[in-house]
Specification:
The chain is α/β, with parallel strands linked by helices. The protein folds into 3 domains: about 290 residues, Aldolase class I (TIM Barrel, Alpha-Beta Barrel), CATH 3.20.20.70; about 90 residues, no CATH class; about 120 residues, Alpha-isopropylmalate synthase LeuA, regulatory domain (Double Stranded RNA Binding Domain, 2-Layer Sandwich). Helix content is about 40%, strand content about 20%. The chain has 18 helices and 16 strands. Helix 2 packs antiparallel against helix 12. Bound molecules: acetyl coenzyme *A (ACO), 3-methyl-2-oxobutanoic acid (KIV) and magnesium ion (MG). Magnesium ion (MG) binds next to loops. The site of 3-methyl-2-oxobutanoic acid has 10 residues, from strand 5 and strand 6. Belongs to the alpha-IPM synthase/homocitrate synthase family. LeuA type 1 subfamily.
């Protein structure tokens, strides 16, 4: 059998639930592990290393439950780690029983430093243990993986010998770990080529790689390994794991996806083939990343490749301009490929007019060139003070700088009666655009609601209040209350874009008065925008 050369695709072995969980503070309970395992199956990983069954009763149960619930015939292989010790292997075999496809992953160190100080054993003793324990694991399951721990710092001649014996004893996957993240990519590639060339029975097993990110090189090492014959990659979601973490699944998968034509020849495929190199459903990547981050409490740094908050966000004007003209000017992947809805154009001090105009249009403002320039000056001034400008900031800029709304309706009087034993009632008087003073009253769920209902009876423009906020701008009992209102047009004249928001703003020591003024302010903007096409006015009493 020539297992290795038959494999024209890359097997993704996820160890988030084993090595990933080994990072300080990332401990998961059984249910959390099960939740992640289900998501890993949706993501399409080939193998889930569900835990280290011997390590604790909780890990045993987690491996067992995952084997039962996720390890179905058409699901992933479920794997448990085990030291090269009979009791570890027995526990792994027992926990994996419910899995349709179970794998025991047994390991023992091969570097002199580990042999001398950790295991206190000779090379000959470790060779014999490896051989014996692989055979023992094989007595339980067909699928056995063997790892010579700290392979990267092991004497190559000894490493070849151990691997040959492990394969002869039944290992179907030989996994080559850079346990301490020491190697450079070309050295790692050379190590894999050395194994291919010097382990006589290597074709009877899949060559796998496992690596850590102590020098930030794990993914780069793995890609060199693929070029030299590795066909299984052991990795974790968000790259979590022991110390600086493991090689990150999303980075590996997307590197192989985006650059598949570069990697094709190394897998014996035609260069131009567009067929995926892994069976990962890339659209599940972002969701899986969020889930792992939430459940482990391990935050993802914003500039993390693929899944960081900034991975598909652009702030600088030149990039945003390019993106708006053609996404490929500044992106090598489509955000949708990893399950995000879209690329983000973040408006900040580095942004330019094109992105500013585009976002305003999305918010329903189609400004003339002159107005746009005016608003843009204000935008840059504000952006110097704030890291990121929200849609609300943009609305405020346009409202203040561009739309000098005439005071069509003017608040003359607002009076409320409320308390714990009375129904909140408000009376308002407004001067209308025709100069007439109208008064009306209404009851509501509270004083502000009553005021707004009374104002609506006078103004008579259908609208939907979508935000009301009140904040104090000075300290103490006599603080000034600042009220901000956001509303949408609720009618059907068809002249106001459906997404257009009208904001109103007012400050007063009496928050009921501030609320009434802010509302009238927003209604004036809405009313003004309706005027040229359809005179709604003539308030009906
Ligand atoms: C590179 C890796 O990621 S390896 C996996 C690391 N993961 C973990 O260690 C998490 C789970 N571990 C545990 O829960 C515990 O360490 C246990 C249950 C496995 C063992 O606990 P203890 O019996 O108390 O041993 P302890 O952890 O103190 O020491 C490890 C022992 O295993 C031995 N050992 C380490 N690796 C191996 C191996 N691959 N095969 C055989 N023996 C090993 C060590 O030499 C040491 O033996 P000693 O006690 O005779 O000196
Ligand atoms: C158990 C082995 C594969 C490991 O995690 C390592 O060497 O880093
Ligand atoms: Mg590891």
């Amino acid at each position: 059998m020539n297992v290795q050369s038959q494999s024209k695709r890359i097997i993704i072995f996820d160890t988030t639930l084993r090595d990933g969980e080994q990072c300080p503070g990332a401990t998961l309970d059984v249910d959390e592990k099960l939740t992640i395992a289900r998501q890993l199956a949706r993501l399409g990983v080939d193998v889930i290393e569900a835990g280290f069954a011997y390590a604790s009763p909780g890990d045993f149960t987690a491996v067992q439950k995952i084997a039962q619930a996720v390890g179905t015939a058409d699901g992933p292989v479920i794997c448990s780690l085990a030291r090269a010790i009979p009791n570890d292997i027995k526990a792994a075999a027992e926990a994996l029983k419910p899995a349709a496809k179970g794998r025991i992953h047994t390991f023992i160190s091969t570097s002199d430093i580990h042999l001398e100080y950790q295991l206190k054993k000779t090379r000959g003793e470790v060779l014999a243990i490896a051989e014996e324990m692989v055979a023992y694991a094989k007595s339980f399951v067909e699928d056995v993986e063997f790892s010579p721990m700290d392979a990267a710092r092991s004497d190559p001649a000894y490493l070849y010998q151990v691997l040959e014996r492990a394969i002869a004893s039944g290992a179907t996957t030989i996994n080559i770990p850079d346990t301490v993240g020491y190697m450079t990519p070309s050295e790692f590639g050379d190590m894999i080529r050395g194994i291919k060339e010097n382990v006589p029975n290597v074709d009877q097993a899949i060559i796998s790689v496992h690596g850590h990110n102590d020098l930030g090189l794990a993914v780069a090492c793995f890609l060199e390994a693929v070029k030299n014959g590795a066909r299984q990659l052991e990795c974790t979601i968000n790259g979590i794991g022991e110390r600086a973490g493991n090689a990150s699944l999303e980075e590996l998968v997307m590197a192989l996806h985006v650059r598949r034509q570069y990697f094709n020849p190394f897998l014996g495929r035609p260069v131009a083939s567009d067929a995926p190199l892994t069976q990962i459903n890339t659209q599940e990547i972002y969701k899986t990343s969020r889930m792992v981050s939430t459940l482990t409490g391990m935050l993802v740094q914003p500039n993390k490749a693929i899944v960081g908050a900034n991975a598909f966000a652009h702030e600088s004007g030149i990039h945003q301009d390019g993106m708006l003209k053609n996404r490929q000017t500044y992106e090598i992947m489509d955000a949708q490929t990893i399950g995000l809805t879209q690329t983000l154009l973040v408006l900040g001090k580095h942004s330019g007019r094109n992105a500013f105009r585009t976002r305003l249009k999305e918010l329903g403002y189609d400004l003339s060139e002159q107005d746009l320039n005016k608003a843009f000056v204000r935008f840059k001034e504000l952006a110097d003070k704030k890291k990121e400008l929200s849609d609300r900031d943009l609305e405020a800029i346009v409202n203040d700088e561009v739309q000098h709304v005439p005071e069509l309706f003017r608040l003359e009087l607002v009076q409320v009666s409320c308390g714990n034993r009375s129904c909140p009632t408000a009376t308002v008087s407004l001067t209308t655009p025709d100069g007439e003073e109208l008064t009306d009253a209404a009851t509501g769920t509270g004083p502000v609601d009553a005021v707004y209902k009374a104002i609506n009876r006078v103004v008579n423009v259908p609208n939907q209040l979508i935000e009301y906020s009140v904040q104090s701008v000075t300290a103490g009992i006599d603080a000034i209350g600042e009220v901000t209102i956001r509303l949408k047009y609720g009618g059907s004249f068809g002249v106001v874009p459906a997404n257009r928001i009208f904001s109103g703003h007012a400050a007063n020591t009496d928050i009921i008065v501030a609320s009434a003024q802010a509302y009238v302010n927003a209604l004036n903007r809405l009313y003004a925008s309706l005027q040229p096409v359809e005179p709604v006015a003539t308030p009906v009493r």
